[in-house]
Amino acid sequence: MDLKTVMEELEALGKERLKKMYINNGAKEPVFGVATGAMKPLSKIIKKNQSLAEQLYATGNYDAMYFAGVIADPAIMTEADFERWIDGAYFYMLSDYVVSVTLAETKIAQDVADKWIASGDELKMSAGWSCYCWLFGNRPDSEFDANKVSGMLEQIKNTIHDAPARTKSSMSNFVYTTGISYIPLHDKAMETAETVGLVEVKGTKKTSLINITENIQKSLDRGQLGFKRKYVRC
């Protein structure tokens, strides 16, 4: 299946309601408004196709860029590929739910995520913190250095309230995911959440307050401590 055919298929799946929702969240034209679930039949036909994924991502069409992440082959993607993708990720639904998710399926995930966290760029930092969330929720605890993760929690405790909006959100999710999916530092994540308190995230249209402690407790009440998913990407 070539680029033209896939774009036609995606356009046919577009819904005006979803298009408006994506745009309200920061997507820019061109956007078709395709539900992620509606992409599954198409992805089952194509499977992994890195060449096509690169062509789709380069279109700048939000739905095509998202679908690129679905059919990408992370095993053959290089750090340079991910740098190109993160540079093209113009809002958080691409940085956190396409690029960082795809990165989380690679051996270089932590190295690249660490560089992004240290970059000072809002969406790169957001993607870096988000990548760790995807990693914690999928990989064995033994793959992580507890001292390093502990230091990351300290960094969040000291800097989260001064961080850019999207980075704040991903930092909050990092503390939450550590508390639920990385058992060795569950207690420290809880302590960090309590110290941080409410996290104010200013959006383009409204301001939201994140209560990390409450979010962790809700998941604990549902028996989700130690939660791991089988696959990172759907």
Structural description of this entry:
This protein is mainly alpha-helical. The chain has two domains: 1-72, no CATH class; 92-234. The chain is 61% helix and 4% strand. The chain is built from 13 helices and two strands, in the order ααααααααααααββα. The protein has a two-stranded antiparallel ribbon. α7 (92-103) crosses α9, α9 runs parallel beside α11 (165-181) and α11 (165-181) runs antiparallel to α12. The radius of gyration is 18 Å and the shape is globular. The model has no long low-confidence stretch (mean pLDDT 97).
Number of domains: 2
Overall number of strands: 2
The helicity comes to 55-70%
* 3D shape: globular
Distance between the termini: 21 Å
In what order do the strands lie side by side in the largest sheet?
Answer: 1-2
The biggest beta sheet reads: 2 strands, antiparallel
Query: What is the beta-strand fraction?
Result: under 5%
Mean of pLDDT: 97
Q: What is the overall number of helices?
A: 13
How are helices and strands ordered from N to C? HHHHHHHHHHHHEEH
Which residues form runs of ≥5 with pLDDT under 50? none
Radius of gyration: 18 Å
